[in-house]
Design brief:
187 residues, alpha+beta, 8-stranded mixed β-sheet, 29% strand
Length: 187
């Protein structure tokens, strides 16, 4: 069940001049409105001890929204561009003589298209989507992604007409949790 908690009206910049000055309407991009909502949720739910998951359209999978989600301890699930600049995981052990902080990102580029094109590694998972149990063919793995500021869980889903990619900022999330959350966005 999804219930609307808060909504903000988006007005295009070109439509601002006709609005009467007494309304004091200021232009905000859709990303700025999303960041404001995540910050509001973070304040509202602070100290409640419950994890909050937010599901966004792929257009909101950008650095400002991801930073706001991270700052407010909100797990974000969204579609991932097929050409997203993903990297492998960084090393967890220091090399002899290595100084400074451990790296946040890996050095090897991950191609989603190549991963999706490989025939091995696909598995079937059951999840609850759109009011029923379905079986999806998926691949899941961890990667680092600069807009998210670190590790994300990536889920590739094989569909009849190709494949789609989703990500979750909670690396421990299961593929079925991510797919269920992504489907609940339409609730």
């Amino acid at each position: 069940i999804a219930l609307p908690v808060r909504a903000d009206l988006y007005v295009r910049e070109q439509d601002i001049p006709p609005i009467p000055l007494r309304r004091r309407w200021e232009f905000h991009t859709k990303l700025e409105l999303a960041v404001d909502q995540l910050n509001w949720l973070g304040i509202w739910l602070k100290g409640k001890g419950k994890p909050l998951w937010a599901v966004a359209d792929g257009a909101y999978a950008k650095r400002p929204v991801l930073q706001a989600a991270t700052k407010n301890n909100i797990v974000l699930v969204s579609r991932l561009r097929k050409d997203a600049a993903l990297w492998d995981l960084p090393p967890t052990e220091r090399r002899p003589g290595q100084r400074g902080p451990m790296p946040t990102y890996g050095k090897k580029r991950i191609s989603l298209a190549k991963r999706a094109g490989q025939t091995r590694g696909w598995q079937a998972v059951e999840c609850q989507q759109y009011g029923g149990r379905v079986t999806k063919t998926i691949k899941t793995f961890l990667a680092t992604w600069r807009p998210a500021g670190g590790v994300v869980r990536v889920v590739l889903v094989k569909e009849e007409d190709g494949w789609v990619a989703f990500f979750c900022t909670e690396a421990r999330a299961s593929a079925s949790e991510i797919l269920e959350a992504a489907a609940d966005r339409n609730a």
